[in-house]
Design brief:
alpha/beta, Rossmann fold, OB fold (Dihydrolipoamide Acetyltransferase, E2P), 5-stranded parallel β-sheet, 5-stranded antiparallel β-sheet, 8 helices, globular
Length: about 250
């Protein structure tokens, strides 16, 4: 029982400039087993200051349309690692922007508890799927490179990973997922850790949630990178200029 507690107890931050919506979300968090309210803010700036000052949360319930700093703009500048972001909106037409930012889900106003509960269950399921035993914290997860391989701590043991076979690396909260053609490795290390310490120059950040192996890109279409096995990785606007400049030089 005790080993599962950290996964079942999720902290939440609520951000909405509409007091009624904010109070509704706070109420939903309060009546949901395993959720705990870490903070509630009436604007994006206050939320940004919370995270920049060291505040944390597992789930960020975030209104989109707010003065001074919109929800989408807030997600773009939040320090990593990102919480699970759930957008709260009156409109359904934010799908493209939400995909680019890799938000977890969105709730449409007027808010509905059944829909809220399904979102929480989905996040819990993802957390359980990513629950892998580790020996040490993320920054120590990598060990010396040899050729195109690297030893990583995976499932409580050191595993040699051939990065020639890694299509891309995807951020998943405090974890990173190394995606290969036929399998995946889940590593307890943030994408920022890989970006700073990965010794292979062919891995390039193309999105706040993705690094890609440029040696394995088959095609580029509409800012989507086509990789073997039908895999696709988006190139976010903030990374496009540097990436395509880099691509032309390959």
């Amino acid at each position: 029982m005790s080993s599962a507690a950290p996964l079942s107890q999720l902290t939440c931050v609520v951000v909405d400039d509409n007091e009624m919506n904010r109070l509704t979300l706070e109420h939903y968090v309060g009546i949901t087993e395993g959720l705990m309210l870490a903070g509630a803010f009436a604007d994006g700036v206050a939320c940004l200051n919370y995270f920049r000052s060291g505040g944390t949360a597992d789930i960020l319930l975030l209104d989109i349309n707010m003065p001074e700093l919109t929800g989408l703009d807030l997600v773009r500048i939040l320090p990593e690692p990102l919480p699970e972001v759930v957008l709260v909106t009156s409109h359904r037409d934010y799908a493209v922007d939400a995909f680019e930012l890799r938000v977890t889900d969105y709730l449409v106003k007027p808010l509905d508890y059944a829909r809220f509960s399904r979102t929480v269950d989905r996040i819990r399921s993802q957390r359980v799927a990513l629950a892998v035993p580790v020996l040490e914290e993320g920054p120590e997860a990598m060990f010396g490179a040899e050729g195109h391989t690297l030893f990583l701590k995976i499932n409580n043991r050191l595993t040699r990973v051939n990065f020639d076979d890694v299509l891309y690396i995807e951020a998943m909260s405090m974890y990173s997922v190394l995606v290969m053609a036929k399998h995946k490795h889940i590593v307890y290390a943030t994408l920022k850790t890989f970006e700073e310490r990965l010794p292979f120059a062919n891995f390039v950040r193309v999105h706040r949630s993705y690094m890609v192996n440029t040696n394995l890109i088959e095609a580029v279409e509409d800012n989507q990178l086509q990789l073997p096995g039908g895999h696709e990785v988006p190139v976010a606007k903030a990374y496009q200029e540097a990436f395509f400049r880099r691509l032309r030089g390959i």
